[in-house]
Write a structure and sequence with these properties.
Length: 337
């Protein structure tokens, strides 16, 4: 393979730049020309790309986001869009494509491979909800960003004897919430995958109050407020008039008499310098993607099955489900008082 392309797709995540850098440098090491495609699959449809050299990926190891930019491209979900993108690959002489994104991006990669374009993909999303991989690029940084924010909230909650309800990202999955809760010692962790009752939180807070505890952190995954397949709590919360973190804080205050505030961390969690862990994952996975293409292996997803970096067919990767780590969740709730 003499010419490869790389794109980032779906929601951005910290470490995507490190992945682009690794693919570029490894590609050049293997005597390949590397094209950086802009705006995900949209750039492939539009032919929006530029050649990357050793220097074009320097000074980006510590930058969040993706310098190739990303997009949610509706046109690519239609067969006509995929065909257009495949034609662009042929027009530009792209013999292999590296895709970084979540499972939507993997589905797109599969469609493209069915049009005869060799593809390899790696998991980039802060949500850590990719079935075939223990961890995804960006998850560790997002957890660290949220942890630091929650630590700051603890400072002010302590001063005012308050309860702080912290909403973290994860539309369809509670992975971010659980690891943030474990890291900050949250009194209670709320995730879409595990049913809960408000009384359980209240009871635990009252138990804490009886022991002299004066401030509380409740970590809530945004996923508990959305009507999704993973959310087991949606109807219950709706029935209580709880539609967001603010409603939850208000009800906890009413039931415990502990003054409560809420903070929605939002997209802050998708920014900032990637952690060493994410830089490592992105670099090793990017390197593996190029090795696969260089050795004529494609239509595969690179993943981590701790401690090993593995690769498997895209179809197989897409079928894999990641069971929610209930044990980890239970530890968070057992240790956090
Ligand atoms: P993520 O990759 O983070 O899951 P999305 O689900 O938004 O993010 O997918 C990113 C892009 O991948 C979409 O904008 C679209 O271009 C492409 N894509 C998503 N789902 C499909 C699909 N079922 N078939 C083809 N392409 C898809
Ligand atoms: O990257 C995944 C994710 O962060 C979800 O947890 C979140 O709900 C969603 O993306 C929001 O992304 P956007 O605002 O870009 O649509």
């Amino acid at each position: 393979m003499k010419k490869i392309g790389i794109l980032t797709s779906g929601g951005d995540s910290q470490g995507m730049n490190n992945a682009i850098r690794a693919v570029t440098r490894a590609g050049i090491h293997n005597n390949m020309t590397v094209l950086g495609i802009k705006n995900g699959y949209q750039g492939l449809i539009d032919g929006d790309m530029e050649e990357l050299n050793i220097r074009s990926v320097s000074r980006i190891v510590d930058r969040g986001g993706t310098f190739l930019m990303t997009a949610r491209c509706l046109e690519f979900k239609e067969e006509a869009g995929v065909k257009k993108a495949a034609q662009t690959c042929r027009d530009f002489g792209i013999e292999g494509l590296v895709v970084i994104g979540g499972d939507g991006s993997f589905r797109g990669a599969l469609d493209l491979s069915r049009q005869g374009i060799p593809v390899v993909a790696m998991p980039g999303t802060i949500d850590n909800d990719i079935g075939c991989s223990d961890y995804t690029i960006g998850f560790d940084t997002a957890v660290n960003v949220a942890m630091q924010a929650a630590d700051k909230l603890r400072d002010t909650s302590m001063s005012h004897h308050r309860c702080s309800v912290v909403e973290v990202m994860g539309r369809n999955a509670g992975w971010v919430a659980v690891d943030v809760a474990l890291s900050v010692g949250a009194t209670y962790t709320l995730v879409p995958e595990v049913p809960f009752q408000v009384e359980q939180i209240v009871e635990k807070m009252k138990m804490g109050l009886a022991m002299g505890k004066q401030h509380f952190i409740i970590v809530a995954s945004e996923g508990i407020f959305f009507n999704t397949k993973t959310n087991t709590n949606f109807e219950y919360l709706q029935s209580l008039g709880i539609h967001g973190a603010g409603d939850l804080a208000r009800i906890l205050e009413e039931l415990t008499n502990v003054e409560s505030r809420h903070t929605v961390l939002g997209h802050i969690q998708r920014g900032g310098a990637p952690t060493a862990r994410d830089r490592y994952l992105a670099t090793i996975m990017g390197h593996r993607c190029v090795q696969l293409l260089a050795s004529g292996q494609f239509n595969r997803v690179v993943a981590i099955n701790e401690p090993n970096i593995i690769d498997l067919p895209i179809e197989e990767a897409l079928k894999m489900k990641k069971p929610f780590d209930r044990a980890r969740y239970d530890i968070a709730n057992e240790i956090g008082i």
